[in-house]
Design brief:
The protein is elongated and about 105 Å long. By secondary structure, the protein is mostly helical. Strand 4 and strand 5 form a beta hairpin. Helix 1 packs antiparallel against helix 5. It has five helices and five strands; from the N terminus they run H-E-H-E-H-H-E-H-E-E. It is about 45% helix and about 10% strand. The strands form two sheets. Strands 2-1-3 form a three-stranded antiparallel sheet. A two-stranded antiparallel sheet has the order 4-5.
Length: about 130
């Protein structure tokens, strides 16, 4: 019998780096969820009815909408549509280009629920999908 040596490869996991990587990813995920909730709480915006029909780019923040108030009627008017229809011989009614507040309650509920689920899962009171009481 001939004697010889076998070449063996060993693989290992650097647990220290793996733990740091997981912690970093969890921290980044938590920051993303917090930013998403903050944006949903603070961002309400106004849309021109023509925005959905692709007639204009009438999307305004609350601050921008305050600056586009029509002095005669007190309505928030889309500036693009207002300029387009201002010199028109037969302009449409102002309500067809009056800005409307978009309800973002659904986005807020989703953001709050995602953050709540993250916090529950990271609390250590979970075994699989079941919560420990």
């Amino acid at each position: 019998a001939q004697g010889g040596s076998q070449q063996t490869k060993f693989w290992y996991i650097d647990y220290n780096q793996a733990v740091h990587t997981i912690r970093l990813r969890l921290t980044l995920l938590k920051k993303m969820l917090e930013k998403e909730e903050l944006d949903a709480r603070s961002s309400s915006f106004y849309l021109c009815p023509g925005y959905n029909d692709k007639r204009c780019n009438g999307r305004y923040t609350e601050e921008e909408a305050q600056s586009v108030v029509d002095p005669n009627s007190g309505l928030f008017l889309c500036q693009e549509c207002n300029v387009a229809y201002n010199n028109s011989v037969d302009p449409p009614e102002k309500k067809t280009y009056t800005l409307q507040l978009v309800d973002n309650a659904q986005d807020l509920l989703k953001a709050v629920d995602r953050k709540r689920r993250f916090n529950v899962q990271m609390s250590g009171k979970m075994i699989g999908p079941d919560q420990i009481r």
